[in-house]
Predict the 3D structure of the following.
Amino acid sequence: MIDKRTASFMRSLCMGDIEEELIHPYPEPRAGEAETLRAVFATLRSMLGAREKDFVAWDRAGEMPRAFVDELRQAGLFGLVVPEAYGGLGFGSTAYSRCLQEIARYDGSVALTVGAHSSIGMRGLLLYGTEEQRARWLPRLATGELIAAFCLTEPAAGSDAASIKTTAVRDGDDWILNGEKIWITNGGIADFFTVFAKTSLEGRGHITAFVVTRDMKGVATGPHEDKMGIRASSTTTVSLEDVRVPAANVLGEVGKGFKVAMHILNAGRTGLGGGSVGGMKRIIELAGAQARDRQQFGRPIARFEAVQQKLGQMVIDCYVSESVVNLVAGLADRGYEDYAVEAAISKVMATEALWRTADEALQIAGGGGFMRELPYERILRDVRINRIFEGTNDVLRLFIALAAVNDVAQELKDLGAGMKGIFDDPIKGFGLLSDYAKRRARLATGLRRTKGKWTLLHPSLEAEAGVFEAGATELARAADRILRKHGKGIIEAQLATRRLADIMIDLFGLAAVLSRVSWRIDEAGPEAAATEREILRAYAAQARRRVDETFACIDDNPDSTVKALADHVTELGRYPWDNV
Ligand SMILES: Cc1cc2nc3c(=O)[nH]c(=O)nc-3n(C[C@H](O)[C@H](O)[C@H](O)COP(=O)(O)OP(=O)(O)OC[C@H]3O[C@@H](n4cnc5c(N)ncnc54)[C@H](O)[C@@H]3O)c2cc1C
């Protein structure tokens, strides 16, 4: 019997178990949602379809006109995830992610404006709000009368979010907030801010989440930041000077705000993932047309293998990312609570695939791709941020590897407690890993492999299922090897944990595509699914090769030289081998 609070496909996989019920059947939008989605897509087409010139102009100007934000309001785009009872469309994660995909096909700034509101700005209210709090704000958030923003980052606290300095000091029934948040998406247009502040002045942690509204005295937002990409979306500082916030505006428990922040970011990842997939689909259309229409050496460049390789890889990347993002959204919709590792994988995979896709599309467009007349340079600028915000992909890779090895099911509760607070107190969390290493060794010799094989896949996928199973064995061995090699020191062994994460990312991608293609064959028959079957075959081969290479690098690598070179240039402050 699966425990929906604790079950996690990737955590189990690190123990050698394939919990296939978690990812079968491949998810679809809930009954009734598909119809609503089609209606929303039609609205998007008529509203955004002919706006390319505007998007270009707003990118140059670095701002989106207020009148256009009103159009987004009128189209109901701020109510996508608000329950119907409060006036929204009540989309689940699968439908929401699909909707952001569609918006991102038109423009990154528009997708971000809508996404930051729904994915993270008001998510804390949805996840932790009391009935009173929900009734108070959700109806106005649904219409966009209130636009929401998520305020965590500060000048000295980015990836290390637990080190924020904004304070909240109790004063009677109120809290007094002071501090400055930076780079807040929607800052300039929002009236509803989910703000994280320290409610204890001692040490790290003790953070609390508050709803702050623009009408409170002492709330101010700065000018729009002049950014590289997504320039039309609003990014500003949010400063809080002696802001009096009623205790009734606390989201969740006092002192548990770090957990609230991480939960919001996890739950919101399918929005960013969906946006990335939508971006890829649009770029594939552009690059396909470019390759078909551009002639060189007497034929369309689409007929050269080097160009075909780029386009074909874009399709594989998009299909795999889409499968992963949908699978994670499905986990959320089916009520699984512990999908943080899978959600982080989906963010890393989709945002990196989008970046590669945008880069290769520009390459296919050649010199024209570098000119501002064509859309590629803007797209490339727009998509770069995705690898940085909502957790940098580098830090997420550490989280993926460490959080996954953390959970060795119920039996390792003590380790779990330490590792859950890994970013609060990494030393304590990692200290517990020596116990883990011992237990892991015992498990490896005892071969607790009750679920080492797929049983729910279509029989014709046996070969690729075999690739996955072999990779899963390699993952368990890699985790063992890395933990034994580094023990407590694993916290500093980032190159090793990164390798573990890379193996996990490829394996989850493969699991998602296996689940999807199997479902397609069952639904539509082998012939209709033939091309998707080929995508699976190609990705399985690529993933297998990468996993093997990564595994081989665990023991045989130039890591010590690379680190020494980094230390050398950091100390010296320059590249020292210039020969003139
Ligand atoms: C356009 C834009 C919009 C944003 N919107 C919002 C928003 O709406 N709300 C909000 O709260 N924030 C927002 N942010 C902030 C964003 O989430 C942060 O930029 C991000 O979390 C990274 O923090 P940082 O920029 O301070 O980088 P840093 O944390 O200083 O990291 C710098 C580099 O060091 C690496 N690094 C850091 N720590 C480690 C480690 N332990 N191990 C290995 N490598 C490490 C990082 O991966 C990165 O490469 C936005 C940022 C931008 C640019």
User: Anything to note?
Assistant: Residues 257-293 form the longest helix (37 residues).
